[in-house]
Amino acid sequence: MPFHKKAWIGACAAGAFALSGLAHADGNRYERERNYHSEVSVSEAYVLTTYGRQNGADNAGTPNPVLLDVRSIGEYVAGHPDKALHVPYPRIHPTVDPTLSNEEKARLLVEGVKAAVPDLDTPLLVLCRTGARSIAAANILTEAGYTHVRNIWEGFEGMPKTGVNGNLLDLNNDGVIDERDWDGWKNFAGLPYSTKLRPTLIYQPLQHLYYE
Fold first, then answer.
1. Using an 8 Å Cβ cutoff, are 140 and 146 in contact?
2. Looking at the DSSP assignment, which residues form a beta bridge with residue 168?
3. Does the bond joining 199 to the residue before it have cis omega, within 30 degrees of 0?
4. How confident is the prediction along the chain (212 residues), in pLDDT tens digits per residue?
5. Residue-range domains of the chain with CATH
6. CB of 204 closer than 8 Å to CB of 59
C-alpha cells in the first residue's frame, strides 16, 4: 500500500485534536462546568482522609485533606463517613430552605467551611449523594479561594452501574438490582460510615436540628 504523507499528517492532526478535546472535557458524571481542581473516587477519598496526605516530596507541606459532606442535615444524620465535616448545601433542612435564597446558601457554605477550615490550601474532598450538589459546592469553594478542591465522583449513595449496552448491572449477583449495586461510598464500594454525631464536625449554627 503506498504511503501518502499528506493523508498521514492529516490523520495525526485529527487525532491530536480529538485527544486535546478529550483532555479538556469536564470529568464529573453530570458533565457540568468544572472550576475546581479535579475528581476523586470514593476509594481514594477514603484513603486520603483515613491515612493522611499522599506520600511524596511534593506533598510534604500540604495540610491533610478534609472530607466535606454537603448533603442535608437529615441525610448526614442517617449516615456519613466517620470523619466527614458537615456543611450542608444547597439543601439544608426543610425548616430552613424556604427562607434562604441561593446566594445566601452559597454564602453560608463558604462561611461554614472557612470557620472549620481557615487554611485555603487545605485539600477539600466534597461529597453529596450522587455527585451533583458537590459539583456546585466545589465550584463555589474554589471561587472563594480554596486552591485544591476535588469532587467525590460517585457520591455517598451513588448511582446504578450499567454495561456497555446500557443495561443495569447486578454487581453483587444476588438476583436483585437495588441500591446495593449503586457505585457510592456506602453501597457497592462498601466503605465504612457512621451515624455517630461528633459536635466538632456538624454545622455549628444549626446544631440543634441534628438531634430532633
1. no
2. 162
3. no
4. 454 544 444 444 444 434 344 444 577 888 888 999 999 999 999 999 998 755 444 566 778 999 999 999 999 999 999 999 999 999 999 999 999 999 999 999 999 999 999 999 999 999 999 999 999 999 999 999 999 999 999 999 999 888 898 888 888 888 888 888 788 999 989 999 999 999 999 999 999 999 98
5. 32-211 (3.40.250.10)
6. no
Torsion 130-136-137-142 (CA) sign: positive
- Measured CA to CA, the distance from residue 132 to residue 151 in angstroms comes to 9
The answer to whether the beta carbons of residues 104 and 88 sit under 8 Å apart is no
Residue with cell 463517613: 81
* Phi-psi group of 205: left, alpha or beta (phi > 0 → left; psi -120 to 50 → alpha; rest → beta): alpha
pTM of the model: 0.83
CA pair distance 43, 129, nearest whole angstrom: 15
